[in-house]
Design a protein that fits this description.
InterPro entries: C-type_lectin-like, C-type_lectin-like/link_sf, C-type_lectin_CS, CTDL_fold. The protein is of the alpha+beta class and 167 residues long. 26% of the residues lie in helices and 31% in strands. The structure holds calcium ion.
């Protein structure tokens, strides 16, 4: 069982570690794909939609996932902005709570001086069809990108349940 799980988790390149039986296990996390939802909603409404039907709004942790995002959007012929899971609340954070390797990856649209917290009230993040991000008003309505699969915490729980009888 554990071997199968590790094989599945190995499909991504990102790691996290868990401590079980006084041993430290380095795990591969976040097996997922993106789902484009062509329905303009506020960021919070989009978050609720993704959590009800998939896992959460999309987390993006490296340039390969930017490429995956762009492939998803182009496959739908979508060439404008979408909400992703990044938001600001004291610090930047991902909607799914992901905090592992790559959680601090950013693809800001620096040519527009983003993020600029315009009007001191832009706390939710859009990506354009080139994979560049900016902060925007959370109450704006945009299509959005959900993710489906294991989040880090879910993967940790599966690994823990799999290994705890080994001790
Ligand atoms: Ca902005």
């Amino acid at each position: 069982m554990a071997r199968i799980l590790f094989a599945v988790l190995f499909l991504t390149g990102q790691t996290f570690s868990v401590n079980i039986c006084n041993d430290k296990y380095v795990m591969f996390s976040r097996v997922f794909d993106y789902h484009f939802v062509d329905q303009p909603l506020t960021w919070t409404e989009a978050q609720t939609y993704c959590r009800q039907r998939y896992v959460d709004l999309a987390t993006i942790q490296n340039s390969e996932e930017i490429a995956q995002l762009l492939n998803t959007l182009s496959s739908f012929g979508h060439a404008s902005e979408v909400w992703v899971g990044l938001f600001y609340e004291i610090n930047w954070a991902w909607s799914d709570g992901f905090s592992g390797s790559g959680a601090d990856y950013r693809s800001w649209k620096t040519s527009y001086n983003e993020p600029n917290f315009a009007s001191a009230s832009q706390f939710c993040v859009c990506s354009d069809s080139n994979g560049k991000w900016w902060d925007d008003f959370c109450g704006n309505h945009y299509p959005f990108l959900c993710e489906n699969g294991f989040t880090q915490s879910e993967a940790e729980m599966v690994v823990f349940k799999t290994l705890r009888n080994v001790c």
